[in-house]
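Protein in question filed below.

…
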Amino acid sequence: MSDMTIGKVAEAVGVGVETIRFYERRGLIEQPPRPPAGGYRIYSDETMRRVQFIRRAQELGFSLREIAELLSLRTEHDSDAREVRQRATAKLQDVERRIERLQHIRRGLMTLLDRCPGEGPLRCCSIIDALEHDRVPNGETTQRKEPDMQTVRLTIEGMHCDGCAEIVRHVLEQQAGVKGCSVSHENGEAKVAVDTRQTSGERLAEAVRGAGYSTSLVTEAD
């Protein structure tokens, strides 16, 4: 391939012109001199190969500082392949730590979503409550602190309007251990995020019955 302008290098590698200029400012590639007679700067095939090297290394998670070190090793004739392997091994360990952290975050988000009723007034939102009171689950450690947090479902008969649903919601919100709830008169159902160390699904059902509605617990089999 013949020598190219910066635009053609960018197109060939699949990056923007500003990306190549950024690499130049960081000292990863050299900016060629401008021709004495004027015109465009001409980039060599070696420069294009360095840009490709940089992009591929970035895709594998290497930082620009680490890439500069790899480029230095690449051009040193007395470098040993063992050095490159050690750097790649260190990067793999770093990636595995990040994956473990992301898995903790994933578990925490799944726990928050499982506890969230999904509807109703914002004051019943268990996600907002967890964020405001520093009770955000973060993997196994936080889950051990609250092992009995569950979502209880109740079928409720006798609700005819949103006003009925508001009454049931108010009754449930007053019960100990309730972190959030949603009630739908259309579906005849309530979902309650509750700490079962403080109360039980049956107690919640009794409270609803005390308000004049017929209710029963929904089990996993249902």
